[in-house]
Design goal:
Blueprint (H helix, E strand, L loop, with lengths): L2 H27 L6 H24 L12 H34 L2
Helix pairs in contact: 1-3, 2-3
């Protein structure tokens, strides 16, 4: 890879992490726009999703480490963090988008 493409990938990752941290800030510091059950779920799982993503990125492992020799419990223990993190990303980004949209419409 050339230096330009590595720099571009780094900038993209920094922007994605900044957006995710900003949505976490809105999730914790501001009033939630989504229903309280979703906000509570997101507030609980948000730090765990960051921790889980950092482990996956640092070890450079697959995000879905599924093998045909896995037992059902191993499969669930590998799938649950992925599903919870994905839901948290969707909920926190949706909440921040709705919060910003509400602030723009009703200043």
């Amino acid at each position: 890879m050339s230096g330009k493409s590595k720099r571009l990938i780094l900038i993209q990752r920094v922007l994605i992490w900044a957006l995710y941290f900003f949505s976490g800030f809105i999730l914790y510091a501001k009033q939630g726009i989504l229903p309280s059950l979703i906000i509570t779920f997101s507030r609980i799982i948000y730090p765990l999703s960051i921790f889980w993503l950092q482990i996956r990125i640092k070890k450079r492992t697959n995000f879905l480490p599924i093998d045909s020799k896995m037992t059902t419990s191993q499969l669930w223990f590998n799938l649950l963090p992925v599903v919870a993190s994905l839901l948290t990303v969707i909920f926190s980004l949706t909440n921040s988008f709705l919060y910003i949209l509400g602030k723009l419409i009703n200043p």
